[in-house]
Amino acid sequence: MKSFTHMFSNINALLFMNGLLSAFVFFAVAQASAADFISEEHQLSDKEVRVGEAYYRADMKWMAYQAEVAEENPFYQIYLKNLENGKVQQVSPGTGKTTCSWVHPLQEKVLFSSTHDDPDAKAKMTAEIERRKSGERQSYAWDYDEFYDIYETDFQGGKIKNLTNTLGYDAEASWSPDGKLIAFASNRRAYTEQLSEEEAALFKKDPSSLIDIYIMNADGSNVKGLTQNNTYDGGPFFSPDGKRIVWRRFSANGREAEIFTMNIDGSDQKQITHLNMMSWAPFYHPSGKYIIFSTNVHGHRNFELYIVDVDGKKEPVRVTDKEGFDGLPVFTPDGKYLTWTSDRTPEKKGHLFHAKWNHEKALESLSLN
Asked: For residue 198, with 0-12 CB atoms within 10 Å meaning exposed, 13-18 middle and 19 or more buried, which class applies?
């Protein structure tokens, strides 16, 4: 989610039916041109094989992201970029899979999810390399590895600390604006609790089905579940004031997802979008007045960015208009720029794009000014 966890998360479930629906269903969304909202668009990354999910520290001096770079590891690793001098450094261990990075708002710490403590991590890396060498092709699908845990590390990639240390998929984490809390997604109850026969069968068929939103103290203590559904709740982010969380909830059939918000204690859960398509990767604008997200209302493989007011009372407004994937949007902390992941490259691989953001136009388009 956040995460290329979010990017194409359950992509195999978008499938044919979504494509049919988009051809025949009328969507209550307002149209606009990308030029209305973004300008001076340019590609931020190009040397990596694929890149995604960039997030900024509050002072806008650092950016964390995930990228596939080294040939000896076919999976993403976490990188930190100094935005003042352009220096990039890897902060994840380099073994296993990683996803979902975040920069602490005040301290020199990076948050990410990793499987590097999996005893078979290196063997899985080798197997993936050999699979690619063989020419075997397969659709992208997230595997919800049960060895994913959430870690924090310093800016040099040292002093790595496991914050969850629980069997099950623990990922999609972010710090609250004050750095005191962490929201994340997990299917840990499938490994730690007694499931009903229905839940056990559902989990065996689809391990994402029991992923819920949790919250914990920044040191990993006092873990509390905020949602409990037999569908995938994931990609949580705090509102700018730290009082609410935005996330996306998949439908039971896995073909649709909608944007939701709630208080940080799990109360007052509100559905914000009602597009009946795949709407996900939501992120608050620093003003706290609207949310940006990605949706495929224009075709099951054509994800575009949209904005919607935080109460979901206005029609969502389209932001991007390029064929292909545009997702995982994030605003800079000052609200003046937008960074997102797109495959609008000749190789059709995910890379980071960046542009100036027109906040006043966004307010006007949603009748919020």
From this structure: exposed
